[in-house]
Amino acid sequence: MPINIPKLLPARSILEEENIFIMDNDRAEHQDIRPLNILILNLMPEKEKAEAQFLRLLGNTPLQVNITFLKTATYVPKHTSRLHLEQFYTTFEDIRDKKFDGMIITGAPVELLKFEQVQYWEELKQILDWTKRNVTSTLHICWGAQAALYHHFNIGKEELPKKCSGVYSHQVLDRHEKLLQGFDDIFFAPHSRYTDVPESEISGHPGLKLLAASGEAGAFIISSADGKQIMVTGHLEYETDTLAEEYARDREKGLDIHVPQYYFPGDNPVKPPVNRWRSHAHLFFSNWLNYYVYQQTPYEWR
């Protein structure tokens, strides 16, 4: 939330240079505040786990947030009960005439398929186009980020020699970007994917800004020039045990999978993992809600 300080206070110019959000009495007195309406297209197979992960982060700010969960109409999930979906989810047809302040499009376990082979791809294309007119800022996660880069910016994905799984260090590339306000120069975040997006194409695209990247995991946080589309190739929302659960699941399936890197102490899967990304996860979602949604969305959509 902003701090209200006098216009002529000497510290004001220093704080503005550092992108600290400040305002004066005139603006504070004329602010209109209402709850933010956030739409979440949950494409994850274990939807209830994903719900808790995102709600935990969205609920850790002073802003009041109203949540609407969206499901695909062209694909029926196999790992979530029909009752749960009917009780808590809606479809695109039911909300296409509405406006939302922010939206999250999650990852999905379909990355080894071509985008056009995904059963709900045509439906997702409609939703992605709709967000440009009806959502102030959309946050795309993992495969959702790859889908957005492909659809909006014509940047494809590449299959990796082995799964990118682990907790990797990342470098902040744009210190003045408000989305990364308060981030350490080097921070950690989980990744779990079989494909990657070419960092060179992102860096060379006039409509994109590469905000954070990893020497091992590649491009991580990407923004459109206007901030309406945010792409995150990893999983800041993951809980401490999520990568361990995925590793155990893949082993049970008999997959040739390596131990998630830099995750278990000493890379020993018998030892409990240590969470090194929680604070930056909360900070990232707080920054997105504040700077890209709350500060940008109109009080009344017209």
From TrEMBL:
Binding-site residues for substrate, renumbered to this chain: K163, S192, R249
Function comment: Transfers an acetyl group from acetyl-CoA to L-homoserine, forming acetyl-L-homoserine.
Locations listed in the record: Cytoplasm
Pathway(s) the chain acts in: Amino-acid biosynthesis; L-methionine biosynthesis via de novo pathway; O-acetyl-L-homoserine from L-homoserine: step 1/1
Record carries keyword Membrane: no
Protein name as annotated: Homoserine O-acetyltransferase
Site keyed Important for acyl-CoA specificity: positions: E111
Enzyme Commission number(s): 2.3.1.31
Record-linked InterPro entries: Class_I_gatase-like, HST_MetA, MetA_family
SUPFAM superfamilies for the chain: Class I glutamine amidotransferase-like
Keyword Cytoplasm attached: yes
PANTHER family per UniProt: HOMOSERINE O-SUCCINYLTRANSFERASE
Residues marked Important for substrate specificity (site): S192
Cellular compartments per GO CC: cytoplasm
Reactions this protein catalyses: L-homoserine + acetyl-CoA = O-acetyl-L-homoserine + CoA
Broad class of where this protein is predominantly found: cytoplasm
BP GO terms, sorted: L-methionine biosynthetic process from homoserine via O-succinyl-L-homoserine and cystathionine
Organism encoding this protein: Mesobacillus zeae
Molecular-function GO term, any one: homoserine O-acetyltransferase activity
